[in-house]
Write a structure and sequence with these properties.
This protein has about 650 residues and is α/β, with parallel strands linked by helices. The strands form 4 sheets. The protein has an 8-stranded mixed sheet, with helices on both faces. Strands 9-14-13-10-12-11 form a 6-stranded parallel sheet, sandwiched between helices. A two-stranded antiparallel sheet has the order 15-18. Bound molecules: adenosine-5'-diphosphate (ADP) and zinc ion (ZN).
């Protein structure tokens, strides 16, 4: 379970939800959505919503935000308007809601006039409960006036971080949403996002004019994701190998340049993988075709620049591979977050090399505005700390969202004991000693100049070439020492001083750092590919690993439970084939018919009658009626003959 980190402003809202509403919520949860319980925070959010409160909810991707506004929309009288910036995906969102039997419709600029008129007619007839609109439509005063003629009972603003200039996806159209609060004073507004830095939260609350909002900030850990980081050798070959280990599983490869996306897609095609490139240089038509085919399981892999993926609801993305070092941890978190939305295990892999750092540095150096320059440097430092340190990846990643995670997650390469460690006590002491002898005010570059014996002007000016530590570390190269400095920082042996004029401050030693310098502690660091002659794995370091990997066993067991046995795979493939066929007939993406999770539950439970099927996660009345019989037939047929008609 993911408990909320914070639940604010709970006072007074619970009393307002009637017993009847509660009953109705429970009913719709199973019969419309097919779920037997709530995900963390959903119930609180739904209660607050039904009590008529404004709310701000930051939930991670896959946290189940749609249910938080769809379920109240079913329960309360009147129309719920959902604002979503993702025009290309609106149809899928509405189709998905309709598959569950919700009276949903959408209005955006992609529609022709006739279709739009049809929607207005349905609205006038009171036949729509849930209306999706794009922000650019809502920005028209006339449009809002037309909406006012219906009873708008509530607004839900999806991807609400787009309202904030602090967010990484600011949309000017979202600014006009501030009119909603004044023009629809009686309709509560619920804002949802998966991006939750404090600045964004504050900005969203202010811009939308939320009144005493109920605030939920959920834990951002994604236990279903496995994180791995590898040094790049031959990137394309590594990518091909990785995809080969995930046969048939949909996934996204992110590359930093258009050219790399195309070359990688070709490399995958050469080995028979259905892969396509996606980048800003392609026409809108081509891009939407690629997206469409991916969403509908027509192709297995999209190789994309970061332009791809925002808001893609496809819940069965099983892996994400970064072929190059990402520019920020926030972006990396969002991109990896696109896998495993259905809560089933998913793999992520990040490949990086020294070349990537050089490219990003060159890009940073060309930045003109000073604070942007420093911000980009800080982002690079965070990313490097993530890929290099021997600390649980989840701990580093979540600390970025101010979330403390204790480590030993059992689901990252560090905690699974896949990283080799070297005893670096002596080199660490050399670097710490250089810091102490120079007054604990210098940053990594200067300290590394000293230990590597590099006589820069700055070193000579201060006479640091006279220090006993000058040139004591020539057995390693500069990059090696710089990463050691980052390790010492992430391990809190070195602490950064307050920055001056936007520049990062120098290092001082923590008490832990002093113990290490005096030889009262040892220090092991993740092995680096380009390390010098001293890189031997010490047995002491290996022991340290054993300790960290300790509690991993329980987690791995949980993952094993989620996986199917080999003898179940055949039925699973069979059900996936049927799902794809039905999706094609209905013109919706396969995951809209049933999620991977639902198909797995069916595979395990093998229901043969409607009531057993209805007990499966994700099966509600509407889906049971529409195509339940075909799944039951397939399962019965498989049980009788061990074969199936619709293999993937
Ligand atoms: P988000 O928009 O927060 O990324 P979604 O609304 O797409 O998340 O939901 C993610 C997945 O979780 C979907 O497959 C959805 O069907 C599933 N889900 C949502 N609520 C529940 C629930 N209460 N129980 C089980 N699964 C749920
Ligand atoms: Zn871990």
């Amino acid at each position: 379970m993911r408990p909320p980190l914070e639940l604010l402003g709970t006072a007074g809202h619970t009393g307002a939800v009637t017993a009847e509403q509660k009953k109705s919520v429970k009913h719709h949860l199973k019969h419309s959505f097919g779920f037997s319980g709530f995900k963390p925070n959903q119930q609180d959010i739904i209660d607050a919503s039904l009590a008529g409160r404004d709310l701000f909810a930051a939930l991670p991707t896959g946290g189940g935000k749609s249910l938080c506004y769809q379920l109240p929309a079913l329960v309360r009288p009147g129309l719920t308007v959902v604002v979503s910036p993702l025009i290309a995906l609106m149809k899928d969102q509405v189709d998905a809601a309709r598959e569950n039997g919700l009276a949903a419709a959408y209005i955006n600029s992609s529609q022709d006039a006739d279709t739009a008129r049809g929607v207005w007619r349905e609205l006038s007839a009171g036949k729509v409960k849930l209306l999706y609109v794009s922000p650019e439509r809502l920005s028209g005063a006339e449009f809002r006036a037309a909406l006012r003629s219906f009873k708008v009972a509530a607004f839900a603003v999806d991807e609400a971080h787009c309202v904030s200039e602090w967010g990484h996806e600011f949309r000017p159209d979202y600014r006009t949403l501030s009119n909603l609060r004044t023009e629809f004073p009686d309709a509560p507004i619920a804002a949802f996002t998966a991006t939750a830095t404090r600045e964004v939260q504050q900005d969203v609350v202010t811009q939308l004019g939320l009144r005493d909002p109920f605030i939920v900030r959920a834990g951002f850990n994604r236990p279903e994701l496995r994180y791995r980081v590898l040094r790049k050798a031959k990137a394309e070959q590594q990518i091909v190998n990785f995809v080969a280990e995930h046969p048939g599983d949909p996934g996204i490869v992110y590359r930093s340049t258009r050219k790399a996306t195309e070359q990688t897609a070709e490399a995958l095609q050469r080995v028979g993988v259905a892969a396509e490139a996606y980048h800003a240089g392609l026409s809108d038509d081509v891009r939407s075709q690629v997206q469409e085919r991916f969403v509908r399981d027509g192709i297995q892999v999209v190789v994309a620049t970061i332009a791809f993926g925002m808001g893609i609801d496809k819940s069965n993305v099983r892996w994400i591979l970064h072929g190059d070092l990402p520019k920020s941890l926030e972006g990396y978190y969002q991109e990896t977050g696109r896998a495993g939305r259905d809560g089933e295990p998913a793999d992520t892999l990040l490949l990086w090399g020294a070349q990537d750092i050089a490219i990003i540095r060159r890009h940073i150096e060309n930045m003109q505005v000073e604070h942007e320059h420093h911000a980009a440097e800080e982002r690079l430092r965070q990313v490097l700390r993530y890929v290099e340190s021997g600390v649980c990846r989840r701990t580093t990643l979540l600390s970025h969202f101010d979330e403390h995670y204790p480590g030993s997650c059992g689901g990252c390469d560090v905690c699974l004991g896949e990283i080799e460690f070297d005893d670096c006590t002596v080199p660490a002491q050399k670097l710490l000693s250089a810091a102490v002898r120079t007054g604990e005010v210098f940053g990594a570059h200067h300290l590394v100049d000293i230990v590597t014996g590099t006589a820069t002007d700055r070193v000579l000016e201060r006479g640091h070439n006279e220090l006993p530590t000058f040139g004591v570390g020539t057995e390693h190269d500069r990059q090696w020492w710089l990463s050691l400095a980052r390790d010492l920082e992430s391990g809190s042996y070195l602490l950064r001083r307050e920055s001056e004029g936007g520049r990062p401050g120098g290092f001082m030693l923590s008490s832990k750092g002093r113990l290490l310098l005096r030889g009262k502690e040892s220090f092991a660091a993740a092995r680096r590919a380009d390390s010098g002659p001293a890189a031997k794995t010490s047995s002491a370091a290996k022991t340290a690993r054993g300790v960290q990997a300790g509690s991993a066993a329980a987690q791995t067991a949980a993952a094993a439970q989620a996986a199917l046995r080999p003898d179940q795979e055949e039925l699973f493939r069979c059900l996936k084939g049927l799902r794809k066929k039905i999706a094609g007939e209905r013109g919706v993406p396969p995951y809209v018919v049933f999620s991977d999770k639902t198909l797995k539950v069916m595979t395990r439970n093998r229901p043969t009658d409607p009531s057993a099927l209805l007990r499966c996660h994700g099966v509600g009345d509407r889906k049971l009626e529409a195509y339940g019989a075909r799944f039951l037939d397939a399962i019965r047929g498989f049980l009788a003959s061990g074969e199936c008609g619709e293999k993937e």
